[in-house]
Write the structure tokens for this entry.
Amino acid sequence: MSPLSPHSGREAPCEVHFNTGARQHRADRIIPVFLPFLGCPCHCVYCAQDKQTGEDASENVRDILEKACAATSEMPPCRAGENRELAFYGGTFTALPSVDRTSCLDFLSRLRREGRITRARCSTRPDALAPKVLKELLQNGVDLVELGIQSFDDDALALSRRGYSGRDAEEGCRKVHEAGLSLGVQLLPGMPGSTPEVFLADVRKALSLSPSCLRFYPCLVPEGTVLARWYREGRYVPWTIEETVKTLGEALRLAWQADVSVIRLSVAPEPAFDAALLAGPRHPALGALIQAEALLLSAEDAVRRLGHAPVRLTLPRFCQGFMYGDKGTLKERWQALGLGPERIVFDRNTRSAMLS
Ligand code: SF4
């Protein structure tokens, strides 16, 4: 007989399943082509893309494509079932001069024809989505457009001088879908004007717009940006690591619950970028700390739904490496949940968690 939930009086479930973030839609291999600042209408207050990508921001599209051609010239066609994705990162792809965009799309089409890639994506701003350009992307083999939304909050967008409103950002997401392209949404937790509450509202809004993936880039303070000046003047205070882990842990839990993959939880390590950082939530294992928090929050929610003391939790094997956080700091919280190590098993054949 099933036990009764003490709070609702309804029958409590015998098992609760929850997602632990198996990454969907990830290409086996990404071929990145970085276009730092190219096509951008301005330098945003927090952006240091040249340092972030390690690429020379003075290079033009022709030089960048020449290098990409050389790097892919020996690449064999994809094997059956293999995924390889060309990704135009950085800059504002859809606002590139038409001749440059055409060169990029010609390169993409050639790799596709030769069977050396199976997918392609580009990134851009939500206010640079002319229908004609979106059609061009679709016709030339782009599958997914990532929008650097950063926030849907009007105040945060205005403070960061993004030049569009939350409504425009939403509209941008719709335009990508209407053009028949998949949508990726990039958010910037901790940007000027963003609080944990604002960011979590951003995540809920983004999830309601049916994205294929999300990226979270906790806001950092690189030297040489307007944000660096604001930081020195005391006008901007970055989030702490603790605040970032707690908030992004909850955001990741929401994304897992909605079955949407989060393909970045922090800015990728890059020596030139790290050397230029003044402040902000930077930690070598930030992604793992956020995953650990999200897993614990998901388990807490599952225990509440189970309605009785948990007997056993089965987790995918990959969770074993991060579940207890930095130096085991989360062990006590797992124990308090009634889930000591003796009640947890790892299974390499499962892709989600099961609590009984
Ligand atoms: S944040 Fe985006 S739009 Fe702004 S400068 Fe950087 S790449 Fe360009």
Remarks:
- Residues 286-306 form the longest helix (21 residues).
- The chain is about 35% helix and 15% strand.
- The mean pLDDT is 92.
- Residues 16-20+295-355 form one domain.
